[in-house]
Amino acid sequence: QVQLVESGGGSVQAGGSLRLSCAASRFTFSSYWMYWVRQAPGKGREWVSIISSGGATTFYADSVKGRFTISRDNAKNTLYLQMNNLKPEDTATYYCAAHALYSRDVSNYRYWGQGTQVTVSS
Q1: To 10 degrees, the CA torsion angle through 69, 72, 76, 78?
Q2: Residue 51 — very low, low, confident or very high, per pLDDT cuts 50/70/90?
Q3: Region 8-33: what's the mean pLDDT?
């Protein structure tokens, strides 16, 4: 079955950095748009960054623009999210997701990982 496995979450102080990874298997990773989505306590899921299948096109939510960088290595079937200058409001469960098309609607995404927790303290 299709599998997406996130790693790299943890607890950091405000201003710190984390790098999340998402290992993909059992589907054609290089043909899919990939997404990082987060869910803060008591809130719905929102996408924070998007990358096209070849990696040439990226998008960021306004809340993370300039601080986060999405990238992918299709040869390794791996998606990354470099998170710098973390803020307490970044605290959330972070998921990677895959979809064949570009979409801003998280309900459309076809495949999902299990999530990894990111906690940013003051």
Answers
A1: 70
A2: very high
A3: 98
